[in-house]
Specification:
Blueprint: H1 5-19, H2 30-58, H3 63-90, H4 95-112, H5 115-131, H6 136-149, E1 160-163, E2 168-171, H7 180-186, H8 192-200, H9 206-224
Antiparallel strand pairs: 1-2
Helix pairs in contact: 2-3, 2-4, 3-4, 4-6, 5-6
Length: 225
């Protein structure tokens, strides 16, 4: 078979040019992202666990607990920049791309951020939940945290606050506490009594929480006058 000389060199040039194009711009380095998020997860969660252990042992405002709180805060400032860069560049990445822990790490860091950061990414997370690349229970946590930021009743009962006046932890007031377990089940969360006992060593008292919700609503109504 014979080739004309110009056509042969044109084909050779095209092959050489096309085969040497970098692929990093079109195929995100997901393995690198997973490695980054693994480091972020350890930096974020380890001092939190250590802080909580010190809180259980010495109290929430003890020097021991505050020492690990400072470490966590410093780590989080670094972690937040990394996670924001990933989301801004690639969007919300699902567990099929970066693994379950990587996906959870995105949620945890945004959950732990200030209100302005959570509010900025809330539309992205709502869309991700609809697409099935963010767990509904993770979005529920974000929605509850946002409600506390805005001084509103939370929906699922995920948020617990430390009340300095009593030096105790308690659930942030909830919409319709009697039906909270039904709402929790709809997004894949277990009963609130189990959540409070396992996570915070607190007992769920429905009648008490109904009264706290009523008091919260009354205070808000009074503030509007």
């Amino acid at each position: 078979m014979k080739f004309s000389l110009p056509l042969f060199f044109f084909g050779l040039l095209c092959f050489s040019s096309c085969s040497s194009q970098p692929t990093s711009k079109t195929i995100p380095p997901y393995e690198n992202i997973m490695a980054i998020l693994d480091t972020v997860y350890q930096m974020e969660q380890t001092p939190i666990r250590q802080r909580d252990e010190m809180m259980d042992k010495f109290g929430a405002e003890s020097d021991e607990a505050q020492e690990f709180q400072k470490i966590y805060k410093a780590n989080h400032a670094v972690n937040e920049k990394k996670v924001k860069k990933i989301i801004d560049e690639y969007g919300w990445l699902g567990p099929d791309v970066i693994g379950e822990q990587g996906n959870q790490t995105l949620f945890l860091v945004i959950q732990h951020s200030d209100y302005e950061v959570r509010d900025h990414y809330l539309p992205t997370m709502r869309t991700a939940a609809k697409l099935g690349i963010m767990l509904p229970r993770h979005l529920g946590n974000i929605e509850d945290r946002t409600a506390t930021d805005l001084n509103r009743l939370q929906v699922y009962g995920n948020q617990v606050k430390y009340y300095r006046e009593t030096q105790t932890f308690d659930v942030w007031p909830i919409i319709d506490p009697a039906n909270v377990d039904k709402r929790r089940a709809e997004i894949g969360l277990g009963p609130i009594a189990e959540h409070l006992k396992n996570r915070f060593k607190l007992d769920w008292d429905l009648e008490k929480q109904i009264q706290r919700t009523a008091d919260f609503i009354a205070q808000q109504e009074e503030a509007k006058k």
